[in-house]
Amino acid sequence: MPLSVVAKKRILYGLAGLVVLLLLALGVFLWKRQQLLNYALGKVKTRIEQKYPVVLTLGPAHFTNLKTVEIGGMRLVPTAAAGPAAVGDTLLTAQRLQVSLSLRSLFAGRPVFSDLQIERAHLTAHKDARGGNNFSFLLKKKGPVPVSRDTVHGTNYGLLLNQVLDAGFGNVPGAADFTQFVVSYNSPDHRVQLTMPRLTIDDGQVQGRLTASVDEVVNELGVSGTIDPSDYAMNLRLFGVNGSVQVPYVAQRFGALVSFDTVRVQLTGKEFTTDEKTGGQLTVHGSVAARNFSFFHKRLSSEDIVVHQGQLDFVATMGRGTFSLDPGTRAVLNQLVFHPEIAVRLKPRLAVKIKVDSDPTPTNAFFNSLPEGMFDVVTGTAGTGTLAYHLKADVDMARVDSLHLDSSLQPSKDFSITHFGAEDLRMLEGEFPFTAYNDRGDSLRTFMVGPSNPDFTPFAEVSPFMPAVIQTTEDPQFFRHHGFMEKAFVNAAIEDIKEKRFARGGSTLSMQLVKNVFLSREKTVGRKAEEMLMVWLIENWLVDRTHTLTKERMFEIYLNIVEWGPTAYRWPSGKRGVYGIREAALFYYAKRPSELNLGECIYLASIIPKPKYYKESFNVYGELRGTTRWYFRFIADIMQNKNLITASQRDNLSYSVSLKGPANKYIVRAIRDTVRTVQPGDTAELAPLNLVDLLNTGAQPAPAAPAVARPRRPAPGLSKSASF
Prior knowledge:
This protein is of the alpha+beta class. Among the domains are: 1-140, no CATH class; 423-723, Penicillin binding protein transpeptidase fold, CATH 1.10.3810.10. The chain has 14 helices and 28 strands. It has a 24-stranded mixed sheet that branches. Strands 22-25 form a two-stranded antiparallel ribbon. A two-stranded antiparallel sheet has the order 26-27.
């Protein structure tokens, strides 16, 4: 039955009324929603200002749809409570913010914001010349300071890092999208600016690009990975967008250049234990890995040191002036696996303890894993068996003389060398060409070390005094050790630490031989490390295992290549310099090497450390100065005590050295004689660098003999390890 006109009108009026009610309800809802939004943002403002000494200013906020809120900018300005350097200095600004807001939480009075988007934000931090800044208040927690400043034991780095981690992880949003975000930092020493065109965080996933400008070093970087604030966990990868990344600051601070292709930083957790006395300590677990890591420092190597794959899985503990890598730490260097334990105390004086053990590594993998730029001569060496490395060292700068060092490379029973690297160390077994260089690295001359050279002198044709004296002054244990004298090396390290330079080398004759024949003259850690490894190969493989090289042959090479006079001197034949025992005997005494007496040999040994200064050993009359005569007596006494010479030979030692060769024309005669009485505690002007190692070396005295006996080495054995 059709509706009447009246009924239709009633229905229309009812619908109109419903629409009006709905519109009124919607208006009330929108009004109430906006009111609640303003209230919620007010609570955010209050919470931030209660937590930090800042004023937070938010622009107009409104809903752009049902759940999306847009805020017309923000500003964060520190108050006076933040410190005089921070007050009124705007720390953070943003042009536009957008967030998602749960309506249910809004009407329940507990607003939950998510999906934060920030456009054109700028975080500006600074530090003045007095140390004042506008950001440190973010790291401070309310309540009493755990420990007052301790100038004796140093800063509590564990406490500081724990505060940084708390602040960092505590402010990571669940979801965020940063567009054109700029972070800048300025101080009297550094200028930093990070520009991020886009950085997103979505359910723990991090993706972004940034341009980092630090002290004029500019890098284009990409970042990706995950972060979980609730567990203090992250796994982030930082990589160069257009190639390698140059690490800033280290060049200015340490004079080093560091770069990498990719770095991965992983943090799996932390534990902070409080302590009222020390302020507590922090233990962190994680890892750092790098690909194509390159490092250059002039004291390490003259070339870039490159590690293609490196990783450190660490358990690190930091406290008041202390740092340690604890058991469980694992380091990977290409294919080498190490287990380092390191303890560092910074104050009152630096003290370091180190313990490193490597896993047994196949020989081929061992040599192929050595860093480029440090071991270029031995890289590519091949063989069988395995090698394992051990290091234990500790030093307290308050007691430098207590330095302890135990280092060894341990081969397996089936270890052998089938192929050497860039230099075949077996060339020492026979005749080979030797090139002499000056201090600038310029080549002076090349000559053969062997019978084809008329100046070559076999070991048996040298005065027996000469090797005996050189052993006494340079390497008392040469015919007994396996290439290294640990005591001499430790003493040299102590001297280097005290003088803060490479003052002494602690080198044995084996090490000097390797340095002169195969390596450059540069004084770097890398060259010394390669020198030691090469000496280990020669002494523990060629000498001890294969017996293809003898100690006598090594001494013979040393005597025939050692520099013994001014490089500017030219022989009638045109050759430059004085190299080898035959040229030395002719240059100084116009004699054959076999005719040298004890005094002449002691004098030649005395100038080995500084052969260019031989002429300064004489006074105005052409006689030896007092310091040199004392040195003669000192060395002769040691030789007699070791039964290397007889009492009669010691008593008949002449302190007069008659230079009958060309050297006589180059003596610099003093204006007046400077002879004085020198006590054994004095430093002889021309004494070898390792003179202190001549005493108490542990050498067993040989039976007394009427004349000098040529030293012989005991029959070699098969040692499983060699310390160096």
